[in-house]
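I'm stuck. Please check this protein.
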Amino acid sequence: MLRKVCLVVFFVFCTQVRSETIQLWRTLSAADEMRTFTQQVERFNLANPQYQVSVQAIPHGAYAESVIGGALAQDLPCILAVDQPNVANYAWSGLIQPLYTDTHSASNLISPLDFNHVNANGIGKYNGKVYSLGPFDIALALFTRRSLLNSLDFRIPTLAQPWSVDEFNMLLEKIKQQGQFKYILDMNLAGVGEWPAYGFLPMIVSAGGDFIERSTYRQAEGFLNSKGAVQWGHWLQNLLDNELTQLSNLEHGQFEKGLLAIHYTGSWMVDRYQKAIGDDLLILPPVDFGSGAYIGGGSWHYTVTRNCPQPKQAAKFIAYLMTNNEIAFFNRGSGFIPTSAEAANQLALYSEQGALRKLYLTSERNVVLRPATPAYPAISAIFSQAVRRIAQGADVTESLDRAVDEIELNILDNRGYR
């Protein structure tokens, strides 16, 4: 009996000595998402007693400041959740390290088998290296009512045949003439933060423009102020002038109450709108402005920080999260869109016959990632200001030219972000 007790004590002692803690920071999110993620961490820790992942969930509003503070104090955790469009900036700043460089690099923390099955929106790259991986995404869509389109005898668009911008304009005018709705289209034009870039870059790309040239990432001239981008700006102003959309934020619940005809927003509204509207809800692909219909892509990813003392172990946890089964588990519990086809097929909502299959396919096939450049945070802020000026009636060409000059000056001031 004494021997058994000693053995047990010795085993516990050895486990405590050998076990290493891998710290992880992420944003504090909805209860169902946090509960699902906690279950994933517990399973990983149970299977890997030699190193235990410890999670610190930080309120979203304080997260960026916490990362900056941790970087300045050289006290970042091993694993850091990063919004995908900021990956390039974090990599350039030296905060994070590559997960995968190339097939010949001895410094690879993961193998291609860990991400070959993942869609583009689930992979964060910079200078050809993989820095981050993410198991979920969200999708942009047009939300409306089937009964509305039926009453106007208007066709329901598909991914293969989305509405052209001319069709969409015609629909908005028909809805206005019908007089059934107080508001025609809501695009959240007063939105702040990342919404303008996330929501409207796909439209500009669809019109033939972009934020910046995407090989050297140094030239915005001819892209953000291209003919297509200018046409998009005039289209936006025409909507406002004809009262087909509005600059101000709408009161909560206007779509559910039947006061708003079409809402351009993200898949985070699906559950709420389905509960309120039921089978009459239509979730439609975005408009084609001439070069295809696109949505924004890239949500929260996980990456390994530069000062992590256990990078291989940290990367092993990220690779675990990115297996098809774990991607499916997380999105089954959270309701987000999975970033792999096999995971989607495991989920009732996103499988071949799933009610939200179109959202997954849009996320897989029609995604426009924000430019993978360290200049992106500046580009996003500058573009948001340009959208605000255009929406308030400023000259479109002048507004976009000014944005181009500010972006290129930022790049020049930072020596091309070499």
Notes: Confidence is low (pLDDT under 50) at residues 1-17.
